[in-house]
Amino acid sequence: EEIYFNGVLLSANAAWREAATHTVELQPGNNVLAVKAEDWGGIASLIAQLTLGDGRTLTSDASWRVSTSLAPGWNTVDFDDAQWAQATVHGTYGDAPWYKNVAGFAANSTAKWIWSTDRFGDNTVYFRLNISHE
Q1: Which end of the chain is more exposed for a tag (fewer CB within 10 A), N or C?
Q2: What mean pLDDT comes out for the span 108-119?
Q3: pTM for the full model?
Q4: d(CA 73, CA 19)
Q5: b/e string for 86-104 if b means 16 or more Cβ within 10 A?
Q6: Are residues 116 and 15 in contact, defined by beta-carbon separation less than 8 angstroms?
């Protein structure tokens, strides 16, 4: 996967069984976490948990936006994702088939496994989470 914050690449990693940890500073107004996720066969889903400096915890759920098409600027704050679908929830952390097999992920997380509606056939998906900050 590739993880972006406000258009800046934070990491690119193919090890789905290891949680990635990043520290970023929220900017006043709108911020965006964007993820390009790829599946190499079988079924796919993304799981995420964010801890914000103001004490909020955000997790992957149906409020994330998802697309199976690459669009210019998809990972930037100014990109309009209004036409993107809401992510489809495919279970909660701990559910089969992935269970809790992500090292470094909070064991008690309520995060949802998310993907497009077709977690078998859609092998590359793009996610966006808009985060507002005062």
Answers
A1: C
A2: 96
A3: 0.94
A4: 25
A5: ebbebeebeeeebeeebee
A6: no
